[in-house]
Amino acid sequence: MKKLKFFNKIMFLVNSLAAFLLLISYLLPYLPPKSFATLSVLSLGVPLLILLNILFFIYWVLQVKKQMLLSLVVLILGWSYLSSMYKFSSSKKVENENNISVMSYNVRLFNIFEWLPNKTVKADITELIKKEQPDILCLQEYRTKDPVELNGYYGYNTTFNNAVKRGQALFSKFPIINSGSLEFSGTSNNVIFADIVKAKDTIRIYNVHLQSSGVNTDVEILKKETSGQLFKQVSKTFKAQQTQVELFLKHKSKCPYKTIVTGDFNNTAYSYIYKEIKGDDLVDTFEEAGNGFGKTYDFKFFPLRIDFILVDESFTVNGFKTFDNKLSDHYPIKATIALD
């Protein structure tokens, strides 16, 4: 440190802070938001912290400085975080006659409030679904007042008592023999489920939409918010999410079938929320067969993956795709799986 020039001393101080915060973030999946609400907010910034530490590592390498070891060690300690954010391997695609395709998509009410200038969002989303023909389709923020017309699917959806009639929807090419909804108090978010039959197997599908922070990601709007206000809002959201997840896990624990959990978690793979939902018995299909950043949310500052398809370990993951269709503030994802 003494041999560093003044500018590099400042750089190393910033590097040390970024490394320390990333190191602390490795504990976040084990810290319940109800007890560590403010600290849990850090999980949203993990992708940025990873990118910063990579940049600092490259910076010191180019200068042949031993300070490169700081970020290198922290990144190695969190290698699973790196693989969760970015998959270096190419997308896996295995053809199998037993394959089942599962698509999840937060459609943001088909753009009825014209967040996007595109006037044909609903038609474009419908066309995408018809082109991809997923065997199982889970939609969040689905406008039940103006449903999508899909042939060849069994369907189940929930409607909330509000002006736009929004909820979640689940469609299946396989017969649905049971379905229901897990209602969360004081919110329009919820979880719906359906039991489907494929050949001799019954499979439980959960379509999850956890509490949203309600924070507008528009840069100009964010500038008007104080950091205290943002932290308070997100902390409150994560506490609500924990309550919602506890309700979901209680319901899931009674399920006798192989399970698929899809949807918009409104949280990252570095969070307590994700860890609890994934548990020890589910596999993240992106980590198994995806590639690249796997970005699922249109966040301006760094790639965010907050939409997931998690499947029982009994399934083999034969493919995963993240679409780049700009028809919502989320991007659709699709996994291809097969029962062993």
Automatic annotation (TrEMBL):
GO terms for biological process: GPI anchor biosynthetic process. GO terms for cellular component: membrane. Residues 103-330 form the Endonuclease/exonuclease/phosphatase domain. GO terms for molecular function: endonuclease activity. Gene3D superfamilies: Endonuclease/exonuclease/phosphatase (3.60.10.10). It holds the Pfam family Exo_endo_phos. The chain crosses the membrane at residues 12-31, 37-62, 69-86. Keywords: Endonuclease, Hydrolase, Membrane, Nuclease, Transmembrane, Transmembrane helix. This is Endonuclease. It comes from Winogradskyella ouciana.
